[in-house]
Amino acid sequence: MLEQRIRHTGLRSRIVSAEEAQQYVKDGMTIAVSGFTKSGDAKAVLQALAKRVEQTGDKLRINLYSGASLGETDTILCEQQIIARRLPYQSEPRLRKSINLGEVQYTDQHLSHTAELLRSGCLGDIDLAIIEATAITETGGIIPTSSVGNSPIFVQRAKRVIVEINVNTPIEFEGLHDIYLPKDRPNRMPIPITKVSDRIGTPDIPCNPDKIIGIVLSRHTDTPSNIVPADSDTQRMAEYILDFFEHEVRHGRLPHNLAPLQSGVGSVSNAVLSGLCNAPFENLEIYTEVMQDAVFELFQSGKVAFASASSFTLSKSMTEHVNTSLSKYRDKIVLRPQEISNHPEVVRRLGVIAINTALEVDIYGNVNSTHVGGTHMMNGIGGSGDFARNAALTIFVTKSIAKDGRISSIVPFVTHVDHSEHDVDIVVTEQGIADLRGRTPRERAAIIIEKLAHPFYKDELLYYFHRALAYGGHTPHILEEALSWHKRFADTGDMRQFRGLADVVGRNRRISSHTGRTIKGMSRPL
Ligand code: COA
Q: Which residue's CA is the closest to the ligand 1 atom numbered 36?
């Protein structure tokens, strides 16, 4: 077993326990770890570190860089207050809480940017990289597991490296990865990917064996993803998108196999991809950062020709399927560094269709994906901006209401802008689909309110928009009211202004006098 997992004979003597390896982590260090959306993350050493801190009460704070979210390790470290600074993405409730309390400094970053910032020196030195691996090659090269993420740049830049060989990972992972690191400027060359299936690098992360100070044998499993099954709303959103694709094919704006698809984390994206199993499109290609269960369902239904990503984020049962049938997927899948899977140059060249989730969208098409109420971090922008800005077709999805209707996801003005109106082509809620391409702000507002808003809020939005028009401008607003819906929610726990019958009747009269619109079905309390 060891011969297969550590093929560099000189490195076999560097096997240590996780408890020994964690002693290399010192207060104030910057530690960079493998891991992307809870997949392929280094787990053993950092969890041993947290245990030590818990037992000894040592005071130790580190800067923690990764590819994207880690699994339970983020929570375990946070509970011991070990994380001082974190980037570029997270999704654990415990860490979210510490970020919003200001206990953890969090840099929310486009996922393709971290490698560039490291190259430029803006993120300082990496003292130690800890990388989960399937094996180490004869030359010291590191073969990743279920994600590549930022591991190549971490290994290149780190002063020292610890490798966690996960002996539970199928050895068949070898050959699935394609490691390519752009050269430092001014010697940068075009990234030679012109097809989703192009392989341009090496199967392993090159590493000088002298840098490897310890090898830990681990058996930790990835935290399984818990995809919420599609409900009637997400199902309807998926149907709108699939109908829209058919419409675009009929009008010659998309080819019969669509264009390479990117889909973000979350249940709607997963439902859209699952829906493609029964849609009339063949030979689909995926160019994304995360492969969720639906990508493998599409493989099983023979719909997908090739899929490129930076990681797998799979349920427990799909992980079992994939881990036992990797050889079947070898010539159909590639896992790349995240700066390549998310690279603007490649996303633009391939003409990707990007589907990501919004928390809220405003009447002009600006999207907030990260900040609840404009102040509290949810997860982070992740790769959504890398794709949204550069895709050929950028789609955002969101349910039209949240918290049992107390929040409208379509608002006069978003409280935080992650994706500006200039980058948003299509928005979908369970109410409908709005095609914003080529539209002016005033046209966009009319379409967004009409097609996307929930009936609870449609007339309120129209009321706002029509009064805003009186102020004039290219993008009319009533500035003192633009965020008043959020203020009302903060004050009362409900964005709805009119809740009693008398309120509603009076409100309807005012709205119809402004908009000239007969208000149907609104004569009862909301
Ligand atoms: N205001 C306040 N809260 C809102 C809201 C709004 N407008 N819209 C939704 N929410 C709440 C929901 O009620 C839910 O709360 P809960 O956890 O207490 O139940 C929570 O936000 C998540 O909403 P949900 O509808 O379950 O969506 P999701 O799980 O698909 O996540 C994002 C949505 C936006 C948080 C998630 O997609 C994300 O982090 N995106 C940014 C990163 C990204 O897009 N990466 C893409 C490449 S992988």
A: 357
